[in-house]
Amino acid sequence: MNKPKAAITAVGAYLPEYVLTNKILETMVDTTDEWITTRTGIKQRHILKEEGKGTSYLAIKAAEDLLRKRDLDPAEIDMVIMATATPDMPVAATAAYVATEIGAKNAFSYDLQAACSSFLYGMSTASAYIESGRYKKVLLIGADKMSSIIDYTDRTTCIIFGDGAGAVLFEPNEEGLGLQDEYLRTDGIGREFLKIDAGGSILPASEETVREKKHYVFQDGKTVFKFAVSNMADVAARIMERNQLTKDDVHWLVPHQANKRIIDATANRMGLEAEKVMMNIQEYGNTTSATLPLLLHDYERQLKKGDNLVFAAFGGGFTWGSIYLKWAYNA
Ligand code: UT7
User: Fold this and answer.
1) Residue with the nearest Cα to atom 23 of ligand 1?
2) CATH for 180-326?
3) pLDDT per residue as tens digits for the range 142-171
4) Is the shortest distance between the CB of 263 and ligand 1 below 6 Å?
5) Where are the domains of the chain?
6) Taking the model in full, what pTM does it have?
């Protein structure tokens, strides 16, 4: 008998209400709507404004959306994985709080951090638990409150990022649908180019680190861009080759939403027409761990059982990779 595959069987999402447009950013830093649009493809992003609410708030809302849509009893969930680069706190797993709040009282849970590749790696982890046969329902949530680590006086980063959350449920599939193959990579040279200097074990928080704004994201955009363009395209092309997928076999590219130019380069390399490329960067910006599930949420109605999806992501670390997955249901 063939081993069951791990399929995505439900999707949920949440975006905070407040919308930060390029026009508003023009009043905050020295930038223009035109520059942001042509260089990144972003027109607006959602921001969680309410004090005292962290990433768990976004994650809980996305998970509740999934539970409601699927009419699922949370007590049936075996495991909750939180893909996030902005946990509620440095210590105490955000996933544990989220699992308890949504009523997943029989689940164990933990956080998984790989910057913008967190959700992609989470898909690999969630699938491996399902394929092992030990667990039947794994909830994977990608959520980030990027506004909590962004310096809104730095025009090179504040125009890019947004807050949001998405959730997917992984379950065993006996029809061969679900995750087919993955190619995941890392390269530690990347940490010089995209990082938060302080607040970790090398440089704990102090008055000085706060004064020098070392708790915010630093990005050498040009260097990260170069690595992202070539590496995201490479892994997507490689996963196609390895699975003998032609451009006609691929129904959808599901790319991390960091910059429209990186997405276009990946699609070009794969030979895909724009109609096959999922894109919502114009509305949400880069929500880090939430970009991939937010795409699935927005395109869910267009997806058909058996569709071939190629996921690709690139992020800090560096971390990157591609996953080939067969979609398992008609919405
Ligand atoms: O998701 C995790 C991985 N992250 C990424 O994949 C992001 C990769 N990087 C990028 O997407 C791009 O590098 C950015 C969008 C961050 C920047 O775009 P760029 O085309 O690489 O611009 P640049 O950094 O080369 O800057 C070009 C010019 C500079 O001016 P000078 O030196 O040529 O006079 C910048 O100072 O644009 C200037 N600039 C801006 N101008 C207006 C930088 N930011 C802005 C801004 N508005 N917001």
Assistant:
1) 222
2) 3.40.47.10
3) 999 999 999 999 999 999 999 999 999 999
4) no
5) 5-176, 180-326
6) 0.97
